[in-house]
Amino acid sequence: MSGQGAPASAAAVDPRAAREAARWMMRMHSGEMSAADQRRCAQWRASDPENEKAWQRAERVAHKLGMVPPALGAPALRNAASDSQRRTALTTLALALGAIPLGWAVWRTTPWDEWNADQQTAAGERREISLPDGGSVVLNTATALDVQYDSATRRLRLYKGEILVQTAADPLGRHFIVESPQGAMRAIGTRFVVRLDGEHTRLGVLEGAVEVRPASHPDAPYVVRAGRQSRFDAAGGATEVLDPNADAWNSGVLYAEKMPLADFVAELARYRPGLLRCDPSAARLRVSGAFQLRDTDSILQALAASLPVRVQTRTRYWVTLTHA
């Protein structure tokens, strides 16, 4: 990846242009867009650079990142029973495009590094890639990663999401480094999990050991050994016993043991496109069990069957759990 700044297409989108882009995209995916509509859409895009920028953002959001699958427009528009539902469907896509002020935004604007990362997964996707040295890395849901190997270093740059790394012996003796915004992790013959968590990085070591160098204090490294984990920020962190389910996601399973529903829903939301939230009225209910991540709709149904909650679905991509 280049170290250059983001071009204009990664900059903020004019809210009005973003709303129009949302309308055009939903019209296109409704299956009802005529040749005349296509010409008008092209004219709208050409009439103002802000319109074209909004359209490019819409295409990236819907197709490249998978935050709002292309099928959103058709069911949301064809099956909407009222103007209110149509407005809800339109707002869902507009939110993803950054058309709503920051305080209302569901999805944050995607940094340029994430948009152009070498390896990416969409919401709900999990993928394993082979590394040039014979090692491997598994990308969990909604992950963006760069792989950079040169004559001196083997380096992974994690921009968002979560990875499971299996290192391999290197005949050249190059260090294996994973970088996050909070610091650098040097693998010492190991298998480990790294996850970005807001302003923190979470590291869990399954085999071997990993040396952590916090970004603000690279001269104060510490080692996390097998069976331990660390949650650190740029200033540093501490170690504790490893969560036994730290890599359960690699088997497609989400484990919970008396987990507050709000926390469970926040975790589940990582594996679904769109917005999934828990109303404060149900936030303290407790969840236990093992849940198969391949079908998040079934998980929601199981919650409604086992807890006093209702699943309120405004659209397929806007779901709220409330107290029954």
What is the gist of this entry?
The protein is an alpha+beta fold and 324 residues long. Helices cover 27% and strands 35% of the residues.
Structure description:
- The structure is a single chain.
- The protein is an alpha+beta fold and 324 residues long.
- The protein is 27% helix and 35% strand.
- The protein is built from eight helices and 17 strands.
- It has helices at residues 15-29, 35-47, 49-64, 73-78, 83-96, 112-115, 261-269, 296-306; strands spanning 119-120, 127-130, 136-139, 144-149, 153-160, 162-166, 175-180, 183-197, 200-214, 222-225, 228-233, 236-241, 253-260, 275-278, 286-292, 309-315, 318-323.
- A hairpin with a 5-residue loop joins strand 2 (127-130) and strand 3 (136-139).
- The radius of gyration is 22 Å and the shape is globular.
- What is the CATH class designation of the largest domain? Mainly Beta
Q: Strand percentage, roughly?
A: 25-35%
Order of SSEs, N→C? HHHHHHEEEEEEEEEEEEEHEEHEE
**Helix share, percent:** 25-40%
Regions with pLDDT < 50 over 5+ consecutive residues? 1-10, 64-87, 99-110
Main sheet properties: 12 strands, mixed
Overall CATH architecture of the largest domain: Sandwich
> What is the number of E strands?
17
Instruction: Give the integer mean of the pLDDT values.
Output: 82
